[in-house]
Amino acid sequence: MTYAPRKIRLIMELRAQGIIDTRVLSAIERVPREEFVPEDLLDQSYENTALPIGLGQTISQPLIVAMMTQALEVGERMMVLEIGTGCGYQTAVLAQLCRRVYTIERHRPLLREAERRLDRLGYRNVVTRAGDGFKGWHEVAPFERIIVTAAAPDVPQVLYDQLAEGGVMVLPVGANPVDQWLIRLTKTPDGPRREELSPVRFVPMVSGLPAEGESGHRH
Ligand code: SAH
C-alpha cells in the first residue's frame, strides 16, 4: 500500500489547524507513522487520531504531536528530554529537529519495541531509559527542552528543576482526564512563565515502575 496521498492529506489538515512551522511539518512528513502503529490498524496510520498501542497506552494524535513540537521551539543543537516514549513516534519527530533526544518510558516492553523500531529506521541520536519519568534524568540535566507526553496532576517539580535557564517545557496537566490542559512553561529568572495552549486528553503519568504482570509478560 502507498501511504503518500493520505500523508499529504494529513499534512494539509495539520496546516489548516494552525501548524505553520515548516520544520515541524517536514519532520512529520519524513516520519513513517505506519511503522509505529499496530499491524491491524495500519490503514489508519494517517488518520488524525490517537490509536491504541497495547498496555493501555496510545500513539498520540498527529495534531497533538505537531502542536507540542511546534510549541517546544526546538533548535538543531539542543538536547531534549522526553517523558513517555510509548511507541517512539514523538521521539522520531523530535530526533529530526534537535541534537539528541533522551527519552524515558516506564513500560519496558513498549520501550524495547520503540528502541528496535527507531534503530531500524536509522535514528542514531536517541538515548533511551526504562524508568520513572517523574525522576527525570539528572546525570544529563539541565535540558534546554523537556516534553512530557502523559498527564500529571501538576507540573512535576523535579522536571522543572532539570530545565535549563531560559528552557521551555511542554506538558499536559490535570488530574481529571476530561479536564487537562496542554501548557508551556518557560524558565525565567523570575520563575516559571506559564501559557495554556489547548485542552487535551492524555493517558495519566504514573509514578514508579509497573508491577509484575502489569507490563503484559506471560509466564
Ligand atoms: N509519545 C508517545 C505517546 C505516549 S503515551 C507517542 O509519540 O505517541 C504516554 C506514555 O507515557 C505511555 O507509554 C506511558 O507508559 C508513559 N508513562 C506514563 N507515566 C510515565 C512515567 N512516570 N515515566 C515514564 N513514562 C511514563
Keywords:
two-stranded antiparallel ribbon; binds S-adenosyl-L-homocysteine; globular; alpha/beta; single chain; Rossmann fold; seven-stranded mixed β-sheet; about 220 residues
Question: What would you note in describing this structure?
Answer:
The protein has six helices and nine strands. The protein has 219 residues and is an alpha/beta fold. It has one domain: Vaccinia Virus protein VP39 (Rossmann fold, 3-Layer(aba) Sandwich). It has a seven-stranded mixed beta sheet with strand order 5-4-3-6-7-8-9. Strands 1-2 form a two-stranded antiparallel sheet. A hairpin with a 6-residue loop joins strand 7 (163-173) and strand 8. The mean pLDDT is 95. Residues 57-60, 65, 83-84, 86-87, 89-90, 104-107, 110, 132-134, 149-150, 203, 205-207 line the site of S-adenosyl-L-homocysteine. Residues 57-60, 65, 83-84, 86-87, 89-90, 104-107, 110, 132-134, 149-150, 203, 205-207 line the site of S-adenosyl-L-homocysteine (SAH).
Summarize the structure.
With 219 residues, the protein is of the alpha/beta class. The chain has helices at residues 4-16, 22-30, 62-72, 89-95, 108-120, 157-161, and strands at 51-54, 57-59, 79-83, 100-105, 126-130, 143-148, 163-173, 180-188, 191-200.
Separation of termini? 37 Å
Number of separate structural domains = 1
On the 0 to 100 scale, the average pLDDT is: 95
Give the DSSP E fraction (strand runs of 2 or more residues).
Answer: 25-35%
Q: Gyration radius, to the nearest Å?
A: 16 Å
Largest sheet composition: 7 strands, mixed
**Overall strand count:** 9
* Second-tier CATH architecture: 3-Layer(aba) Sandwich
CATH topology (fold) name:
Rossmann fold
- The name of the CATH superfamily reads Vaccinia Virus protein VP39
Number of helices: 6
Shape: globular
Structural class: alpha/beta
**What is the H-and-E element order?**
HHEEHEHEHEEHEEE
Helix content: 25-40%
Give start-end ranges of low-pLDDT stretches: none
Q: What is the CATH C-level name?
A: Alpha Beta
Ions, cofactors, ligands: which are bound?
Answer: S-adenosyl-L-homocysteine
In spatial order, strands of the major sheet run 5-4-3-6-7-8-9
